[in-house]
Amino acid sequence: MSTQTVRILLVGLGNLGRRFCDLLAEKGPPVEERYGLRLLLVGAADSRGLAYDPQGLNPALISQIKQDGGTVADYPLVGRPGQAANLVAYAEADLLCEASPVNLQRGAEPGLTHVRLALERGMHVVTPNKGPLVLAYQELHNLAARQGVQLRFDGTVAGGLPALYIGQRDLRGAVVRCIEAVPNLVTGYILELLAEGLPWDEALERARAEGVLEADPSFDLDGWDAAAKLVILVNAVMDFPARLEDVERAGITGISGAEVLAARREGRVYKLVVTAERRADGGVDLRVAPTPLPAEHFLAHLGRKQMGVVYHTDIYGTVMAAIDEPTPLPSAATMLRDIMDIFCGQ
Amino acid sequence: MSTQTVRILLVGLGNLGRRFCDLLAEKGPPVEERYGLRLLLVGAADSRGLAYDPQGLNPALISQIKQDGGTVADYPLVGRPGQAANLVAYAEADLLCEASPVNLQRGAEPGLTHVRLALERGMHVVTPNKGPLVLAYQELHNLAARQGVQLRFDGTVAGGLPALYIGQRDLRGAVVRCIEAVPNLVTGYILELLAEGLPWDEALERARAEGVLEADPSFDLDGWDAAAKLVILVNAVMDFPARLEDVERAGITGISGAEVLAARREGRVYKLVVTAERRADGGVDLRVAPTPLPAEHFLAHLGRKQMGVVYHTDIYGTVMAAIDEPTPLPSAATMLRDIMDIFCGQ
Questions:
Q1: Which residues from A are below 8 Å from B345, CB to CB?
Q2: Which of A73, A118, B93, B141 is most buried (CB neighbours < 10 A)?
Q3: With 70 as the cut, is the pLDDT of residue A132 above it?
Q4: How many CB atoms lie within 10 A of CB A124?
């Protein structure tokens, strides 16, 4: 078996990017042995700087620098201050992993610029960053097609669950009539605490203490994250050009602990559920809402660290999938899944 | 978009083959429009005869003939008595759908001969028939690789659930440490009746009356079907050459209704569970056994018409999937899924 080298740029070294470096260090050798694929990290950038070495950077060292609170600008010899966009614009590489922070305001920047630039330069792009997909799904797909490269984003929906691959590939030939999903961990965790009788402020406190809550909790609690994931799911699986502004959205902040407790006493489980239902006229109704699910519903069984999706189809029955994800590792591993899929084909 | 024609041979016109004809009739036009793929059934065979027409047979007519209790030998003008193997040996086609009955005894014939012959002639093969895969997994894969064609068998495990695609593709790069699955519908149905308090003979009677039970019920009840599916799963997903004789197998016939009832009173749910566990020495322990699952186990929630699988991995967390399959249509549709996957690539 001949070995193929994939030169990778990684932009974003937060929770996911740093773990992706760990994965490259750990999985590089077995992936090369098993699939003949040499994953070579040639460039990396965070918000403070970048490093580029055509011979390959040491992903374990980058991970260590980040865990110690440093920046990749401090990488020995080849690290320097600078903007990630410069790395994407000038480095020689085959593929960009875009893992910069999600930003649905301000035009999904800087992620959108990075993705566009990489595609324009003929690189494949792999990204768990929802922003560019939510704001420019069709534009980016058209660009990738024109350039003859792949754009993959399995990590944008429901963490490490291959929700998009199941929906796009395994349901080919079917009409997907309805999608239901619980794609957000934070809201499930807080609803669970409320169901145990904790008051709202203590539940928030606990989530914050466990590092589950973002600095701006509104992104999760008000349903923006779930809505963004629904938009991507529907574009990818239902082939329908859904937009964020088409989603009827209610977050969990309007729910009282008493409501959650009362539902639980009746055997119902509150989850922040996203739903897409195909209408008779060809349109799709999009909804994010806290929903008291009956105990027998597939999504009612999801545990604290679990996300799930249900596809109602015409010819494949009802296909359901869930993931238990105690750490962000599976979300970071979606980048490995996407890369393997591009280069190992079928 | 240019249109590619796929000339298909279909062997076996039972429950799955007949429904696949319905699917070709219903899904042919939208698949051609959406994917530029023209699915042309040029040959079909059942146990009594065959029909071959390079210009294409009418799948809806074949389905009608079979529903009326006839044979494809009666197909107007081109139907004739004869053996399926002759069709596979002489017809010009791109792909064989092998849907003849499962037969783990007698060398998995006639399915194995059909699959070998088609691969040797350079056809792709799609099959929901477990027999050939269980008995000759590696041989058939080697043959397909030498011939540069695809061998797909998503329908051999857990009906319409894409258990193999999830395990083989979406978990690429991971070590799958353990697989648990409930891949058999019949045993789940009977265990459910026992849990409702029906005595064994009445449960069997009911299953037979509803057409769920095969003429030889031992294949399902004694765990042979589940064991065969486990062998295919482990070969495909764990990359381990498991054989049927390696499986420690117990069916459900040794379980009394009283045991099932007692478990249910304690909140435990009996299912016929298959398990594959990787040992430290690199081997894999294979087991089929009726198991009283705790209520919080993913597989404990499966309903009467549901099957499921759980993959425990090192980097993708725990990935779980299930299907609700009220009719055999999703199982037949796996042949469409496999064909689409071969010809529509990624």
A1: 345-346
A2: A118
A3: yes
A4: 24
